[in-house]
Specification:
Helix content: 40-55%
CATH superfamily of the largest domain: P-loop containing nucleotide triphosphate hydrolases
CATH topology of the largest domain: Rossmann fold
CATH class of the largest domain: Alpha Beta
Number of domains: 2
Structural class: alpha/beta
Distance between the termini: 15 Å
Number of strands: 11
Order of helices and strands: HHEHEHEEEHEEEHEHHHEHHEHH
Shape: globular
Strand order of the largest sheet: 2-5-8-1-9
Length: about 325
Amino acid sequence: MSLGPAWSQRIRDEIGKAVIGQNAVVERLLVALLANGHVLLEGMPGLAKTLLIKSLGTTLGVQFERIQFTPDLLPSDVVGTMIFQPKTGEFSPHRGPIFANLVLADEINRAPAKVQSALLEAMQERQVTIGGQTHPLPRPFFVMATQNPVEQEGTYPLPEAQTDRFLFKLLVDYPSAEEEASMMQRWGQVTQQPALSPVSSGEELLALRAEVDRVHLSAAVQGYILALVRGTRALAERQGTAKRYLEFGASPRASLALYQAGRALAWLRGQDYVSPALVQELAPDIMRHRIGLTYEAEAEEVSADRIIAQVIERTPVPATKA
C-alpha cells in the first residue's frame, strides 16, 4: 500500500512550487479525485483557492477550464448551445467549458439559480443535454467550486439540492505566520508564478481507483458511519424542552461519501483498512454542508462543525480495528 503516499507526495511537491501551505486542503482534493467527488471551497479572497485548483489541474495533466460565475452568466455559457452553420443550413452543438476533466466554477454563488442548476445534471449524471441531445462528459470529470463566505451583496446562496452534490465543503483558512513569511520571500519580487509540469494523468487517476477499491472497510466501521449520519437526523427530530439546533440532518449521500472518502484517505496514507479515526476526521468536511441549522443555532452562533463534533463525541466507537 506504499503507492498511495508516493503518488500523493509527487502531486504535493509539484503543487508546492506554486502554493505554499494548505496541506490539509490539498490532501482532501486528492481524496475527492480518488473518490470521484466534487468539492466546494469556501474562504476569504486572496487565499489561493483559484490558484490551488488551477495548479492541481496542471499537475494532473488533465484538461482544465475555468468558468467565472457572474450575475449575467447564462446556462448556455456553461454547457454550450446550438450554433447555426450558414454553409450547411443546419444547427450544430457548440460545447461549453463544462466539457473538461477539471472544471473550476469560480465564485459560484455570484450566478443566479438558473445557471447554478445547469451544473446539476453535469455533476450528478456526468452528461449534459444540448438541443435535445445528450453528450457524455470526459472521464475523469470533476467540478471544484469556490465561494466567498462574507460577501452577501449580489450573491445567490446555493440551494441545498446542489450543495448536497459536493463530496466536500472545505474551509480554506489563512496561512500561518511562517507560511506567509515564505510567500513574501519567494514571490515578493517575482512577477510570474513558477511553471508547473504534469506528474500524473487522467488515465493514471482512473487506474488508481481500482487500488482504492481494495481498501477494507469492516462491517463495524460501516455501522459507525451510519450511526454518525443518523445521529444528525436524531438531533433534527428532537422535540420537547431541549433546544433544537438542526432543521434537518445529513442525507444518505453523507453515508456514501464517508464510505468512499474513507477508503481513499486510507489509501493515500498507505493503510489497507478504514479506521474510525479516519471517519471522524472526514466527518466535518462531508457533513457541514449537509445539515441545516435552526434560527436558535444561528442566533447563539452554534456552528455546524460544533454540532458534528457533539455527534462524534456521543456516538460509541466500534472496538474492532479493521
